[in-house]
Amino acid sequence: MKISPDTHPKDMLILVDKNDKPIGTKDKLTVHKEGLLHRAVSVILITSDHKVLLQRRAMTKYHSPGKWANTCCTHPMWNEDNIEACKRRLKEELGIESNQWFYWKTIHYVENVGNGMIENEIDHVYLTFSDEHPAPNPREVMQYTYIPIEELKDWIKNNKSICTFWSTLVLKDLNLHLLNSITDRIC
Fold first, then answer.
1. pTM higher than the cut 0.70
2. Which SS3 state, helix, strand or coil, does residue 106 take?
3. Is 121 an annotated catalytic residue?
4. Of the listed 72, 73, 86, 163, which one is catalytic?
5. Pairing mode, if any, of strands 72-74 and 68-69?
6. Where are the alpha helices (DSSP H) in the chain?
7. pLDDT at 2 over 60
8. Interatomic CA distance for residues 17 and 60, integer angstroms
9. Which of 72, 119, 121, 163 is flagged as catalytic?
10. Is 187 tagged catalytic?
């Protein structure tokens, strides 16, 4: 499971078996072109007034450009745990730092995401809570918005064609009742 010295570690994805056990690494483009099973994390940021931060991916992204997505997502690097990856990507994409994290769920999906790319991910979904204002990195994010959690399901339904496939999966079950049960456990 060596990382090639001519490839930056950020471009190496963790290949996993169906139980999410690491079996090696491979470069990001090859993984997506061949649809290989790999590990991912997704972040959903929620504000104190129960709004969810969504981002619109930059047009320079190698797949799903210009589509709306959850707050951010990434692939953990080889010696990086999931929460470290979430923190890194939230800072890189939106300039936000958060220390309050809650593991929510894991999903597996396979989807053709265009440009000859296939996502085949075991995606670990984390919630974070912050009122810090975004400072988007324009290479990653072209726009952002806040959607009240009670309007999220309708927003996704009405905008599904302009959303990333994975964001519809990670956001679909988020609701105020779930949020209240989570915040009761962590407060």
1. yes
2. strand
3. yes
4. 73
5. unpaired
6. 28-34, 82-94, 152-159, 165-171, 176-186
7. no
8. 30
9. 121
10. no
